[in-house]
Amino acid sequence: MMNPIFIVLPILTLLMFELGLELNIRDFTLFRYRPRPVIAGLIGQIILLPLLAILLGSLFHLDALFFIGLLLIACSPGGSSSNIFSMLAQGDVALSVSLTALSSVITLFTIPLILGWATQMTGSHTGTFIQLPIGALVMQNLILTLLPIGLGLLFKAKFPEKAEKIKRKLHQISFPALLLLAGVFFIQHYKTIAAHIGQLGICIILLIALAMFSGILLSRLMHLQRREKRTIVIEIGMQNAAQGIAIASSPLIFNNSTIAIPSILYALFMNLILLTYIKTVKK
């Protein structure tokens, strides 16, 4: 059986390179000029989403591997497709790009901390001890996340016209590439997914719905504009599933396809729910 890591690695690299093509240096400094929406987005994504995953995973008594997988997707950075979704929702695209970039950098540090705690906690409570090589996790995320983003930024600075053309092409193929990944993963693991789709599926749908609701509450607390609110809801609800699958499937880290199942289900439900949200807010 082919390891999905050989599909997800090029897809994740392309998605991160595409994000780099979207970015400008000022996207990392938006906080100085518009702190409230940036704070709202980062609180929702970096703090609230993992807490919601811990709460739901405990309430649903998920198996240890699914619990770690759920927490993995919850503490992953925002997905690069959120920028497109924000545009479709007539949201604040500049804010979306900034939040995706900032979360991609911040989670380089938070993912090892959260997953390190999760593996120790599940081991002490269930007896299922899962090794998490922190060094390999950090190195893989640097190579697959930060490096392609940096290369995209550099390429855009050197060849702006070519970068714009490549960006448009990547916009067209990124979503079909994720669907290909999902299809391959389902074919390989359909028995496990079918056996747990009820409990795990409901848990993931609730996680996405509560994340989006948290975005609405944070936007109201911060007195954000309508366009900012739509972007915050999308950013908190849309995670980088490709990175979650890469970490779960990597021979250097977990090397466990079961841990990747929550990420692939999250990707499917996330797109369906957020497309419905976009259709609703645009009426």
TrEMBL record:
- UniProt GO cellular component terms: membrane
Judging by the UniProt lineage, the source's domain of life is: Bacteria
Q: What kind of membrane protein is this, topologically? A: Multi-pass membrane protein
**Where do transmembrane segments lie in this chain?**
6-25, 37-60, 66-86, 93-118, 130-153, 173-190, 196-219, 231-253, 259-278
Q: Which InterPro entries match?
A: BilAc:Na_symport/Acr3, Bilac:Na_transpt, Na+/solute_symporter_sf
Keyword Transferase listed? The answer is: no
UniProt subcellular location: Membrane
**Quick one: where is this thing mainly located?**
membrane
List the keywords (alphabetical): Membrane, Transmembrane, Transmembrane helix
Annotated protein name in UniProt: Bile acid transporter
Species of origin: Odoribacter laneus YIT 12061
